[in-house]
Description:
The protein is an alpha/beta fold. It folds into two domains: 6-119 and 303-331, Alpha-Beta Complex (Quinone Oxidoreductase, Chain A, domain 1); 133-273, NAD(P)-binding Rossmann-like Domain (Rossmann fold), CATH 3.40.50.720. It contains nine helices and 15 strands. The chain has helices spanning 48-54, 125-147, 165-176, 191-196, 205-209, 230-238, 262-266, 281-292, 312-320; strands spanning 6-14, 20-28, 37-45, 71-79, 89-93, 108-111, 116-118, 157-159, 181-185, 201-204, 221-226, 240-248, 270-273, 304-307, 327-331. Strand 14 (304-307), helix 9 (312-320) and strand 15 form a beta-alpha-beta unit. The two termini are 21 Å apart. Bound molecules: NADP nicotinamide-adenine-dinucleotide phosphate. Residues 47-49, 133-134, 137, 161-167, 185-187, 205, 227-228, 232, 249-253, 274-277, 319, 322, 324 line the site of NADP nicotinamide-adenine-dinucleotide phosphate (NAP).
Amino acid sequence: MNPGSSYNAIVVDKKKTGDTELSVQKLNTGQLPNNDLLIRVHYSSLNFKDALSAKGNPGVTRKFPHTPGIDAAGVVEQSSDSRFRKGDEVIVTSYDLGQNTWGGFGQYISVPGDWVVPLPKGLTLKESMIFGTAGFTAAYGVKKIVGQNVRPDAGAVIVTGATGGVGTMAVAILSHLGYSVIAVTGKSDQHGFLKKIGVSKIMDRQEVTDISSKQMLSSRWVAGVDTVGGGMLDAVLRQTDHNGVITCCGNVLGGELDTSIYPFILRGVSLMGIDSGICLMEDRLEIWNKLATDWKIDSLDYLHREIKLEQLPAEIDKIIDGKQVGRILVNLRS
Ligand SMILES: NC(=O)c1ccc[n+]([C@@H]2O[C@H](COP(=O)([O-])OP(=O)(O)OC[C@H]3O[C@@H](n4cnc5c(N)ncnc54)[C@H](OP(=O)(O)O)[C@@H]3O)[C@@H](O)[C@H]2O)c1
């Protein structure tokens, strides 16, 4: 490990009151743990989990001071792992990055080789982080839907939390693959954005959730990517067609799911969970390769905003309030 390189990072400190304080600080690579790879981070991105970490949520981060950032893409600076060499372009997402291991909101990370994915041909470091964990998770959900043979001509696919990071990516990938996408959003001022990334129909959140308490309702879609959970997921399940597939990844509405058994046993609906954090490396490589080739969407430029480290605190507050639209790319090159 090179003890001499100083770098900039967001540092989150937790006070005795439980409140956290964020600042950009100068750190030194000598302060990082001695893992297999030292990586110079060029880009990161903002995900909901980063905001939880920055706000001191103990379910995400227990050790402070801490540098969040569950996503990082950059260039290997030092490696003791024979699979990687100095100069290799790599992506690191998932596992413990940005949780209790200092993450991508710093210009350097030190990580085990088993967490690292070579940047696939067809993606730049910047593009990989516009996708980031949100795009990877959306693609993982789409992979499950495609894997259950739900083809584009089978019916519409619903995406909840559609203007959020995962939702935006799910909408864009599904419409790129020819699916008719229903976007559910609470942001009436973002219909233009959603249409531009390919949705066929927009529904207000209440249109989905303000329904009769009947345990099954007329079917309105055949598949779905749910990023919200709770009552939204229950409502989505009860309006899913025969042999439909709903994937769930998010808990924006909390951890409880109170629903009916009937969509499962009378319509053969499948509910498939997504954990992007610990997925098999062969699935991880396949998904990144898809994102670099057949599933690479045209709207990557349109659906992100690029910021610097100093701008992160304000963007973190916005994602906590459910007000972000699309993806926030963090440029750490200078
Ligand atoms: N399991 C995994 O591997 C995995 C990976 C990544 C993310 N996640 C989880 O997935 C969820 C979404 O992550 P993200 O990064 O996309 O977050 P995000 O950018 O904040 O998006 C969440 C979206 O949910 C919608 N929303 C907010 N409050 C709501 C409410 N009260 N009722 C209904 N909808 C509401 C909003 O979209 P609209 O305004 O358009 O409705 C918001 O933009 C989070 O819970 C995150 O922790 C899980």
